[in-house]
Amino acid sequence: MKNLLLLASLFLSLPIFSQTKPFPANTTFSNGLMASSRNGQHAIDNYAIWKANFVELCSNGRYRIKFDDPSKTVSEGIGYGMLLSVYAADRTLFDGLWQYYKDNVNQNGVMNWKINGCSGTDGFNGATDAELDAAFALIVADYQWGSADAIHYKNDAKTLISTIKTHEIEAGTFVLKPGDQFGGSQITNPSYFSPAYYRAFGNFTNDTAFWNSVAAKSYEVINGNLTQNNAAGGLVSDWCQASGAYSSEAGGYNKAGKTYSYDAARTPWRIAVDYAWYGNADAKNYAKKSSDFVRVTLNSSTNIKDGYNQDGTLSGQWHNATFVGAFACAAMGGENQAHLDDSYNDLNSLGEPTSYFNQTLKTLYLFLLTGNFYLPNNATLSNNDFIMEDAVVTLYPNPSADIFTVFAPEGAVISVISPLGKLVLEQKSTYETTKINLSNQASGLYLIKITHDNKSVTKKVIKK
Fold first, then answer.
1. Where is the signal peptide (predicted)?
2. Active-site annotation, residues
């Protein structure tokens, strides 16, 4: 008994792992710099502002995000909202946004890009950035809450990723189409490129070769665009061809898509994610170019305006979060701590609470800058080749009076061994989250052994 109590005491002194990360999680990335003044409270405060000003409850538990015209909702906003709510562990809102997305899909299974309030299509067919954000948010949801309840996040994520592959990646080229019904090599949008997501998609669906090719093509397009148009820093154009040249099909967009405006402004953020999560060299190179444009050419984050020609000359006039925050994210790869700190503080000081685009992006940027936009474990390992390590096999709550939740590979054998060495329960997991009920067992220290593909991990738990 003395040894049992000693083991229990030692175990209770260890950190308790949980599948669901709290908000704020305040992760420290292993790649790049992080702002000295970063504070999870900034993420909390801006999430609350965003939610209060742009979230509206519809019927049947659906939620929508109010657009610039508050009577409208765009798929982009739903994707942003899903990202924010899943990282904020706001499951009610997340589920309502995802149900709204599914209520408004077209024949290909992607959300029509503009909706009249709670129902009624105003703009038909998909916008690919929304699909990418929604699919990745579903991966995070599977990590946060598992997939054993009413919404099977894992299956929904795989379905949407497959839909993107089929309808929003140009066949044979790996070029991201800007929508399911148009674009590809003749016209694409660099600000939609999300190479970090692609790497996660590949791991999550055991399709790494394809998605790594989409990621590589993204950098090929970006670098071609910068080179062909003699761009300053990382100032990509809003729209271009896969070669990087301007597209003749972009005539209906702002300045024919030839400037660094409100589309392109998001690119440094999306690319910075690839560096923070994966340490990708292409991402690092682009982030540093973007950061140095602000630090060296503009001399300060406070001098940023909302638009540039690709040669670096000014085309905008306003200093706002959409532009400031993306460049602040790029500064994570910019190798200059003082500049990152100044950029972070500049972004955090901006107050545009009723501007849909500025406040939404400010909140997303702050989530990344404070370590609350992180890569979840289930997106780092192939589902059919799960490495059995403590980092990816967790149990919670611990101690517990009755039910323990085990996060482990699908198909793993979970064995529960009593303090006397007797096998008291054994079952095979059908999801990555499995509930183990020990309510009928005596209090004490138990061993839970998880075996998968001839590998095993043993965890200690305390039954109260």
1. 1-18
2. 76, 129
